[in-house]
Amino acid sequence: MRYVATTTLLLALCSTASQALQVGSDNIELKGTVVSGGCTVATGDNNKTVDLGSWKPSDLPSAGSTTTARSFNISLQSCPAASMVAIRFSGQSVAGQPSLLALDSASTASNVGIELKDKNAAPLALGDYSPVVTVDANGDATLEFSANLIATASPVGAGSVRADATFVLQYN
């Protein structure tokens, strides 16, 4: 991906320069790569709901307290065989805590965010890529994650919890 962006920038700069001043002729070598189609998200994993469970405010007694993490997977198909794939989650973050996913406006709980974790149970900040997974010979890969509630302040107010995250795949 970075190579394509660099090539585009180079072409734009060369185009502007050639319009401004044409003195002699130079050679520009243009390079690129044609890649097979990207991965597709398996049916059922593209609009996934992860149930984080029901918890009492006393289960989150102070800022930084967390609930038990709930596991979820995102399965990919039709990836280039033997490639490596990672996912980056994005969404509205908690004010002052950009690594945590904020609750949406329909949520009624307060002082709570959602923490995403990678397959090793390490926190996965919004905007960071997950550890890579190798695609198998059939073009399939499964990325493992978990999520939990985290108190962002005290006291936590009871109510509904909902948030949306989107993800981007990166593979090579």
UniProtKB/TrEMBL annotation:
Pfam families reported in the protein's UniProt record: Fimbrial
The organism's place on the tree of life at top rank: Bacteria
Gene3D superfamilies (UniProt xref): Fimbrial-type adhesion domain (2.60.40.1090)
InterPro entries from the UniProt entry: Adhesion_dom_fimbrial (IPR000259), Adhesion_dom_fimbrial_sf (IPR036937), Adhesion_dom_sf (IPR008966), Bact_Fimbrial_Adh_Pro (IPR050263)
Keyword match Signal: yes
Signal peptide annotation: 1-20
Identification of the protein by name: Fimbrial protein
Provenance organism: Pseudomonas triclosanedens
